[in-house]
Amino acid sequence: MEDKELLQAIKEMISPMENDVKDIKGRLGNVENRLSNVENDMKDVKGRLGNVENDMKDVQGRLTNVENTVLKTNIVIENDIRKAIQMVAEGHKGLYEKLIYVPEEIEDIKDSVSILKFVQTEMAKKVRNIK
Predict the structure, then answer these.
(1) Which terminus of the chain has fewer CB atoms gathered within 10 Å of its CB, N or C?
(2) Helical H runs in 1-131?
């Protein structure tokens, strides 16, 4: 009977360990479920990160297009618009220089008209006297 008692003692010692193993298995199952959830979340994060990378590539492409457009615009400004503005300014400068002398010319014309009026009046008097 000694063997039966020994087996009974071993069984009583193992019984609480079996409960502990069951508890550990349950906890391990919970850890596995949580790890599975984390893996799913990581897949989602990776997918979103892929979308962000694609969006960044798109933004970089658009930025390159904007930079090229700005460069072309700057070239047009430097080559065409500045020259056109300079030509307009030179044309206005010539007009301004001509207009500076207009008041003097107007005074000269007024003087000439006054003289012509006087001469015309005198000639009209002479013509009347001749008749």
Answers:
(1) C
(2) 2-76, 82-100, 102-130
- Assigned token pair, 59: 């933004």
pLDDT tens for each residue of 10-35: 888 888 888 888 999 999 999 999 99
Could you tell me the CA-to-CA distances from 38 to 29, 32, 41, 46 in Å, in that order? 14, 10, 5, 12
Is-above-0.90 flag for pTM? Answer: no
pLDDT per residue as tens digits for the range 60-86: 999 999 999 999 999 988 888 888 888
**Residue 69 shares a structural domain with residue 112:** no
